[in-house]
Amino acid sequence: MKRPQLIGVTVAATAGLLAFFMVSAMVNKPPVEKTVEVKVESNDVLVARTDIGLGQITNDSLFRWQSWPKETVTTGFITREDRPDAMTQLSGSIARAPMMAGEPITEQKLVRAGQGGVLAAILPAGMRAISTRIKEETAVGNLILPNDRVDVILIRRVRGRSGGEDYVSDLLFGNVRVLAIGQQIETKEGRKTADGSAATATLELTARQAELLALANSMGEISLTLRSIADLDLEAGPMAGTDPSTRESTAVRVLRYGTPSRAYGVN
Predict the structure, then answer these.
(1) Which of 13, 116, 223, 228 could pair covalently with 138 via S-S, beta carbons 3.0-4.6 A apart?
(2) Angle subtended at Cα 211 by Cα 209 and Cα 214, rounded to the nearest 5 degrees
(3) What average pLDDT does this structure show over 155-179?
(4) What is the DSSP string of 194-240?
(5) Which residues of 94-105 are buried (b: 16+ CB within 10 A; e: fewer)?
(6) What Pfam families does the annotation carry (predicted)?
(7) Which residues pair with 57 in a beta bridge?
(8) Residue 38 host element (H or E)
(9) Residue 138's closest CA among 222, 234, 36, 239?
């Protein structure tokens, strides 16, 4: 091959290699990322700045405004647009239920100052709060805590047919909620037992049940039996939410010196 031809072939090969590398670089070039800003309409919603406990009295420092997408703001949320002075207005209110940090504040979760005390705030509509005496041996060794569910049993003495005294038990109510033990209305984090010195348990009952419990307190000794957490559904089980005024007595027979005694119910 003549020299001019050799030079031409070399130049062509070099140009071809150069073109190949340039095309490869263009093909393998990483795509350019483009950032597109999408503007979402939002509202400032009043939320809890820190965790707020049941019955806690609130103040300005427990609230803050947080931006929320406008389409997720539901009825009941308090917005800065509608109530710019909400922090000041709600200061001094009582928390009707525990709230976590960042949780939206609603009027239903708070009771304004002057509208009632802590217990009245957490008591459901139509229900009554009534206390009964307890001690360690009648309250599951002080292991019953607020919001547990219990059965209420009355132990009393009656005169038997023979003229002697017998002890009988009556199941007054089943599956009722404990509102407070002593003055403790909320289970503190890490606490495993209630106040051991507490002498009363406050229960959530209907008006008729509260009347019967007041009568039972004067008739004998009240014992509370703790229910399983699986029984929290008020509609579960034959004794759930039972009012003894609408059923037959559940008094049981007891043995006295090996002889069955007569059992009486609560009238």
Answers:
(1) 223
(2) 110
(3) 85
(4) --TT--EEEEEE-HHHHHHHHHHHTTSEEEEEEPPGGG--TTSSTTT
(5) bbbeebeeeebb
(6) RcpC (PF16976), SAF (PF08666)
(7) 94
(8) none
(9) 222
Q: Residue 62: is it exposed, middle or buried by C-beta count within 10 angstroms (0-12/13-18/19+)? A: buried
What's the pLDDT band for 2 if we cut at 50, 70, 90? low
- Residue-wise DSSP of 45-86: EEEESS-B-TTPBP-GGGEEEEEEEGGG--TT--BTTT-TTH
CA angle 183/185/187 to nearest 5° reads 120
For the chain, list the domains and their CATH numbers: 42-112 (3.90.1210.10), 119-186+196-253 (no CATH)
Beta-bridge partners for 48: 63
List the one residue out of 51, 106, 110 whose CA is nearest residue 83. Answer: 106
22-72: pLDDT as tens digits: 766 666 656 667 776 767 788 899 999 999 887 788 888 999 999 988 888
Residue of 126 and 26 predicted with greater confidence: 126
Q: What's the length of the chain?
A: 267
